[in-house]
Amino acid sequence: MPHLEIIWDRRNRIAILLASAVLVVAIATVDWWTKPYFSLGFLYLFPIMLAAGFLPRWAIVLLGIACALLSERFSNLDPADGHIRLGFEALALCGCGLLTSEVLRNQRLSQEAQERTRILVETSPAAILTVNEGGLIELANHAANELLAPRDGHLIGEPIAAGILLPA
């Protein structure tokens, strides 16, 4: 499966925000051309999701409302129900953008915490091992390698249940 998190890498900020703006304009243009036939309002989800990794919450909400207004403007549905549709569509677009933003924020925070843990383990003079839920050693510092003296010299990736014994 492709790693989509590279899209929201901080170095891609300008390119992704420009691509998102171009997508909004392109969707609005095509939606305007096809107005009498069908609506493309659901496509506004994609530029909102792209931009959500870089925009503050208030900007995501404004973008969602703007896209909902564009979608309603180019809709050929009965205008009498337009306010209800507009409200639900704005809620859906804003909610999707805010959800994407929070997922990306939590992922970044998790990666930062893992990096801090790795640095703490590697710089500690005490022997430290971290084991994942599958029982494999994820991190082992130099002191743990010296203390446990594995046969091949590598503790990382070895199962803890393999009977790592202290040297005699």
Class from helix and strand fractions: mainly alpha
Radius of gyration: 25 Å
Number of helices: 5
Strand content: under 5%
Q: Shape, please? A: rod-shaped
Largest sheet, strands/sense/barrel: 2 strands, antiparallel
**Residue share in helices?**
55-70%
Unreliable sequence segments: none
Q: Look at the structure and give the mean pLDDT.
A: 85
Distance between the termini: 46 Å
Tell me the domain tally.
2
Number of strands: 2
Q: What is the N-to-C order of secondary-structure elements (H for helix, E for strand)?
A: HHHHEEH
Order of strands side by side in the largest beta sheet? 1-2
Q: Kindly report the oligomeric state of this protein.
A: single chain
Can you put this structure into words, describing what you see?
This protein is mainly α and 168 residues long. The chain has two domains: 4-120, no CATH class; 124-162, no CATH class. The protein is 56% helix and 4% strand. It has five helices and two strands; from the N terminus they run H-H-H-H-E-E-H. The protein has a two-stranded antiparallel ribbon with strand order 1-2. A hairpin with a 5-residue loop joins strand 1 and strand 2 (137-140). It starts with 12 loop residues before the first helix and ends in a 20-residue tail after the last helix. The mean pLDDT is 85.
